[in-house]
């Protein structure tokens, strides 16, 4: 079965860090620049994220994310550079196109935000097994139902795509033309989609029954299959990140009071 | 006479990991069972015959024409494949419409398609359910509908993928009769199967696949005499054969009738 997660085990430093640390890192990377109001901090966090991504050997997998964000950033640069409402000073003129300083600065901030968000999430997503992440949510008090809904997505989607390809094979075997012009493809839609829906409804019911017979709804406190491994390293990282957030808040409050 | 010629066929899903390596088989009009452990390459072989996947090397010819140049939809006129799980194909509101879907797809006109569907349904004994919704029927009945939906296409070659799974005795007997009828009509019947008793009773020829290669290819009776090779392929003998072996009868019987004759001659 194909997996839909971006995670891949590389036996790297971040693979062995508690998912919560990485969540806290995201919180720090997003909140500290906001609290301080200094855009250099965004640059610092982007640099840290890139360093973490490269040192944990997942840079190659992050490249598609870069290309995706590049499209957004490029659009922002063009649109804001040309049409930002506070545009005053022309900085660059290409024929009839006038790029303004204010718009380009605004686009620069958007770009920093996009990269900061994407990369800090990449640190978490590319190095954490989804089930571990969900486990740690449930450990801190989220309902196991919520955890199940999240983790089932990772099973159901690959399963559905597999069913889809079997169904497509079965209908093609009965002479259904699935390639060609738009009309043929629309005609092929119903023979494909109705068995997919029926079988996923049946599967869902079976799954619910299977969960029920294994006591999913029991009200006793649930235990976990995997033991939580929160090391001293995790605790130290957590404390540092929390301290950074608190310190930056204090600094901001003091500067406001002055 | 229908013939499938498989020449030097190899296939892999991922590079360097051959699922089938250098297969050479000629299927003739004998009913043929393809047996082997899970993962031996049975389903892959059938998918290749149907053109659903393309070989990395080698060729398959059906009655002299290579299938590599034909689309899956056009191959459907020549080879019918009954899938393991009927729910992977059923989508119409009534049984009759479901069975008519195949013939209509391969260009048979509506009147003839309807006749073919009615005939196929009576062959599998489902005539009285013509206007029912398939999902109101049980799984074994849906399986029979799936079989009828292939029979109605009147292809010279028919492949069954695990026809006996989750079927009770009566349904198995029905499927047995269908296979014999198809054989009588001169069609080439192939099956992938784990049910050795069914193989012993229904199929003239048996091919044992093991780790992507043909381990044995012979008359069914001779195949089941190769106890050591079968063990290598992790396959068991049919129940009757095991009994006659335990009793040290002179001949290895495969079916109950054979066994009884043998027993009285003993």
UniProtKB/TrEMBL annotation, chain A:
<dbReference type="GO" id="GO:0005886">
    <property type="term" value="C:plasma membrane"/>
</dbReference>
<protein>
    <submittedName>
        <fullName>Cobalt ABC transporter permease</fullName>
    </submittedName>
</protein>
<feature type="transmembrane region" description="Helical">
    <location>
        <begin position="236"/>
        <end position="254"/>
    </location>
</feature>
<keyword id="KW-0472">Membrane</keyword>
<feature type="transmembrane region" description="Helical">
    <location>
        <begin position="23"/>
        <end position="53"/>
    </location>
</feature>
<feature type="transmembrane region" description="Helical">
    <location>
        <begin position="65"/>
        <end position="85"/>
    </location>
</feature>
<feature type="transmembrane region" description="Helical">
    <location>
        <begin position="105"/>
        <end position="126"/>
    </location>
</feature>
<keyword id="KW-1133">Transmembrane helix</keyword>
<dbReference type="InterPro" id="IPR003339">
    <property type="entry name" value="ABC/ECF_trnsptr_transmembrane"/>
</dbReference>
<keyword id="KW-0812">Transmembrane</keyword>
<dbReference type="Pfam" id="PF02361">
    <property type="entry name" value="CbiQ"/>
</dbReference>
UniProtKB/TrEMBL annotation, chain B:
<keyword id="KW-0813">Transport</keyword>
<dbReference type="GO" id="GO:0005524">
    <property type="term" value="F:ATP binding"/>
</dbReference>
<keyword id="KW-0472">Membrane</keyword>
<dbReference type="InterPro" id="IPR003439">
    <property type="entry name" value="ABC_transporter-like_ATP-bd"/>
</dbReference>
<keyword id="KW-0067">ATP-binding</keyword>
<dbReference type="InterPro" id="IPR003593">
    <property type="entry name" value="AAA+_ATPase"/>
</dbReference>
<protein>
    <submittedName>
        <fullName>ABC transporter ATP-binding protein</fullName>
    </submittedName>
</protein>
<dbReference type="GO" id="GO:0016887">
    <property type="term" value="F:ATP hydrolysis activity"/>
</dbReference>
<keyword id="KW-0547">Nucleotide-binding</keyword>
<dbReference type="Pfam" id="PF00005">
    <property type="entry name" value="ABC_tran"/>
</dbReference>
<dbReference type="InterPro" id="IPR050095">
    <property type="entry name" value="ECF_ABC_transporter_ATP-bd"/>
</dbReference>
<dbReference type="GO" id="GO:0043190">
    <property type="term" value="C:ATP-binding cassette (ABC) transporter complex"/>
</dbReference>
<comment type="similarity">
    <text>Belongs to the ABC transporter superfamily.</text>
</comment>
<keyword id="KW-1003">Cell membrane</keyword>
<keyword id="KW-1278">Translocase</keyword>
<dbReference type="InterPro" id="IPR015856">
    <property type="entry name" value="ABC_transpr_CbiO/EcfA_su"/>
</dbReference>
<dbReference type="InterPro" id="IPR027417">
    <property type="entry name" value="P-loop_NTPase"/>
</dbReference>
<feature type="domain" description="ABC transporter">
    <location>
        <begin position="4"/>
        <end position="236"/>
    </location>
</feature>
<dbReference type="GO" id="GO:0042626">
    <property type="term" value="F:ATPase-coupled transmembrane transporter activity"/>
</dbReference>
